[in-house]
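S.,

Sequence below, as promised.
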Amino acid sequence: MRVDLFIQNVNIYNSYFKRFIPGNAAVLDGRFLYIGPRGADSFEADQIVDGQGRYMVPGLVDIHLHIESTMVTPDTFSYGLIKNGVTTIVPEPHEMANVFGLPGVTEMIRASKHCVADMIYAIPSSVPATSLETSGGSIEIEDMDRLMQTERIACLGEIMNYVDVINAPDCKTNQILRHIRSQYPDLIIEGHVPKLLDLDLQRVIYAGIDSDHTHQSIEGMEARIAAGMFIEIQEKSMTEEVMNYLIEHDVSEHFCFVTDDVMPDSFQRRGHLNHIVRKAIGMGMSPEKAIYAATFTPARRMKLSDRGAIAPGKIADFILVSDAKELTIGQVFKNGKKVFDAGEEYKPEGYRHAFPAHFYQSVQLPLLTEADFAIRTDAKDGMYHSRVMLVKNGSTFTEEHHGEVEVRDGEVRWEDSPYGLIATFERYGKSGARAHGLIGGDTIRRGAVATTYSHDNHNLLVVGHSPEDMMLAANEVIRSQGGFCVVEDGKVLAMLRLPVGGILTEEPLEEAAAAVQSLREAMESLGYNHYNPIMSISTHSLPVSPALKITDFGLIDVNRGQVVPLLVGSES
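The prediction came back faster than expected:
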């Protein structure tokens, strides 16, 4: 019989036995027709590929990520995915949704339709993430209904406001959960529940949230699996203890690997989900088990029964690798057609101005002055205890620290303290709100950093030790309609322009990667001591990530879900 493609002499990964089996494969109309020992003489093949004894692995499937975290557009992202063997993703565009609301989601979906990699979207569930911030847009229940009716949707994206889920029965998040469970009972609901245990964890699961992708511990992971929760392991959870647990226990059906957030320079240098698989193998997991957790279990979690395995009837997405442990990619096939070859030139198509015109004019904020970085107060002159956001290497979580500052002539004299200033400015032209706080720990020790890439509200965030440098960095970002700027002593050290919604660039991945690497190095030169300084600083405004954060409403005690004052009392 006729087939489009016949791949012979390969070791084919069988997801059902979790092992490689020597054989051949036939593809017809973009799907696998036959897997087994029959040779090419059994078929009339339009094309025959000699696998030369290599390993044939299903296309990798990443079910939890945010394209915006890589700061590039969907077509650029797809270009990076394909050369790393990732053929299907479930992106959640809650960053673009926070900037533009429903149009942010629909335009991201529209921009993805021509991409080689399949992008099956998650509906952002928490836009804005809390009621304690100003965002450019929101996603309401009626917006979710529209998306369900008009788009192919994989799941309801991560429920982030777990505090309200537990403590506020009538909050927006619980209204969404009740609506989804009532109207779309088969829709998967993704979760974000860091550190929750015992009754609080099980109340979240009872509400319908049955996955977690946040930083895992052995105790937390066991509690989640025992309660029926699916675990999505990203790189920051790949500690020796966690990996040994996953290797030694029979939990293959209860977890998968995901990337969540990948910086452009890391994407370019190390890869994507394939990097996670290689790392797992390097930490002692068998290639067969690691591949399973990046193909079959994620596909099954998202009810994508047509992929994640090499078997009759499945979509013919696969990669040919010369070394199963290193996952050394030779070719990538999508729907039975070769889309990448390591021995051939591979260029991105590149689409400029793929979004509506107003997407490039989203920063509605006048230029700032040095006076905008003064902390004014009604407190009397004297020394005060003050809350300080303490940055800690190894995590995007922050801690609340209490330090001493002087109040004089109606201002907090932060420049005379051991701490830097953190400030945020509402940038959508809605309220003009702003907030100021103090920052210390493993952050910059001099100069300034400004960005509109500040999760999830993406208001203008500025951290620094000099009002002059802070003003310069902020104004460079405002003039560029969004971006990331690092300044020291009145000189711009690094700048990445992000004109699409203030969070994306249309430059090629290689150029974005180089710019982000320069940003990272510039921040480190100012004393930022963190494994990922860009992700660290951009989450200072994320009021669902413990413990002390800042939005245009003020300082946020994340665990209590409340705005708290900067000054906590005067010295006796």
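The longest helix spans residues 509-525.

Coffee later?
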